[in-house]
Design goal:
The chain has 316 residues and is mainly α. The protein has 15 helices and two strands. Strands 1-2 form a two-stranded antiparallel ribbon. It starts with 8 loop residues before the first helix and ends in a 5-residue tail after the last helix. The mean pLDDT is 86.
Length: 316
């Protein structure tokens, strides 16, 4: 009497999921999978694809509500060439946007790493502190921007009041009336809102680092700084990549905080690319030029994400 051995689990899986083949049940399962993910794919295409295609079409046409005679006519690259003309503040806004992104992300990364290290330590009430740290991140950006605008008010805000009490530099300053003081106020408001987000991501990265390697480092005589520089930072890179890319893109697209706190002023000294885009669409009603700015924002965001990913990519 001969017996036939049952196929192994791996073989059964290969038979079931073989690309382009398999049983009728496998093909039915694949069709069911496609049907299940189709609504999500179509929703993503509708939400992200349609605006992108619409702005791309606008960017190659005359779409200015103040010039109905040229409406919908093909304009070639004129909207893109306008980005670099003297009538546009595109390059100035780009410089301010990149400058803010570099300073804010660098500042927030340092603070977030410090905060994550503190939250990683064991102490009484750690769970409560972790929950409290998330409160600024949970506050809507519009609300936090209005809150900080009030705080930096010279007559009613507590920032000027506290600086005056302790005789610190910056007392009796109209913060939102000067270029650099406005940027300082925006930086503080943005950091208050976004540092918890970065800290939680980095904390998740710290929690997967095994404690054994720190114990081995201590036995070898490594100092706390050496352990941080040689062990923590390299092993934290995957989480750091995620946090940096997300925050860099957010900082590059900053709009709501500036719209509420300074309105792009004084003058246009705090006007970023997103604010310039808003101005082109809703103030100048030049949808063609606005479309060109939108496409530029998408391309530059992808470039920034690619550069950051390569710069801080974990070594293999």
């Amino acid at each position: 009497m001969t017996t036939t051995a049952a196929p192994s689990l791996g073989k059964r899986l290969r038979l079931t999921w073989a690309p382009g083949g398999g049983s009728d049940r496998a093909r039915a399962d694949r069709r069911l999978g496609y049907l299940l993910v189709a609504p999500a794919v179509l929703s993503l295409l509708a939400v992200t694809g349609y605006p992108l295609v619409y702005n791309l079409w606008n960017s190659f046409h005359h779409e200015n509500l103040t010039n109905a005679a040229q409406a919908h006519s093909f304009s070639g690259l004129s909207n893109y060439s306008k980005l670099f003309s003297s009538s546009s503040d595109f390059l100035g806004s780009l410089t301010r946007t990149v400058g803010f992104m570099v300073v804010s992300v660098a500042f927030e990364t340092v603070v977030a790493i410090g905060l994550a290290l503190v939250l990683h330590k064991a102490f009484r009430g750690r769970g409560l502190v972790r929950a409290a740290v998330l409160i600024p991140w949970a506050v809507p950006t519009v609300v936090s921007a209005l809150l900080w605008k009030t705080m930096f008010d010279q007559r009613n805000g507590f920032v000027d009041y506290l600086l005056g009490i302790f005789h610190l530099p910056g007392a009796h300053t109209t913060w939102l009336a000067g270029e650099w003081t406005s940027w300082a106020a925006i930086l503080v408001a943005d950091a208050w809102k976004n540092v918890p987000f970065m800290a939680i991501i980095l904390l998740a990265g710290l929690q997967v680092i095994p404690e054994d390697i720190y114990e081995a480092a201590r036995i070898d005589g490594a100092s706390a700084w050496q352990s941080f520089r040689r062990l923590t930072l390299p092993l934290l890179k995957p989480a750091l990549v995620v946090a940096l890319v997300f925050r860099a893109i957010q900082a590059f697209l900053i709009f709501d905080v500036i719209f509420i706190m300074t309105g792009g002023g004084p003058g246009n000294t705090t006007e970023t690319l997103s604010y310039l885009n808003y101005h082109a669409f809703l103030v100048d009603t030049d949808f063609g030029f606005g479309g060109a700015i939108s496409i530029s924002l998408v391309v530059l965001s992808l470039v920034i994400a690619g550069i950051l990913t390569r710069l801080v990519r974990p070594s293999t």
